[in-house]
Amino acid sequence: MKFSFARGPSLALAQKVNLLAEHAGQIGLLFFDLSLASIRLRVSSKAIFRQVYLIGIQSVPIVLLAAGLVGIVTSQQGGYQMQSSLPVYIMGSIVVESVILEMGPVLTAIVMIGRVGARITAELGTMKVSEQIDALYSVGRDPVEVLAAPRVLAMMISMPLLVALANMVGILTGMVSAQYTLGLGAERFFYGARLFWHSYDMFYSLLKAFFFGIAIPLIAVHMGLRTRGGAEGVGRTTTESVVLMILTILVIDAMFPPLFLQ
User: Which residue segment(s) compose the domain that 183 sits in?
Assistant: First the structure.
């Protein structure tokens, strides 16, 4: 009995590690195929622009709404925590650095996972279980070139631009919130923001957005293309894809400070 009890968790752990390695290997091969298709110019520019519209432009309202709320919440909570222990203009630095270094990129990525990543997985998963992917192979078309590459390239283009807009809106709404709740004018707000500002910070934010823009569609496409089990399988795979995308974004976010802020 003791042997079987010890073996059970070990076997389950080995299976999870094996599954994780399988996912990582398949995503790596998918990224290689995407890079090869892009270098060989086999991806339709029309398809890329269409996906930029669907992924990027149509996501602007929800991204800006989330960014605005982030700026307001950051300003209000920062004002509450300070409790007059620091000069009020420090709030400018708190809002700007929080939004640019962390909240802007991460919250935008979470929004894009829900709006775009889940949709990509569901679309490709539906095509997979309905044998539309096999139909592409039968007529000599590569699904990676036709379906995957335009979505990944469009997200790589759109994500840094969306994060830049989110940063700007988050800072502006944080400034307005600080003015109404703390009486902090725009001039003093930006004076405080400049005290701890580094020109590298914006590059760091956009670099983080670029990596998020690679990870989200890669995982979404990968999970969509391995969907099995009909409509039920599409729902299950989409849920697993969203969880995997969120965890990946958090892991990438945790890796960035030691790699790029040292």
Answer: 45-255
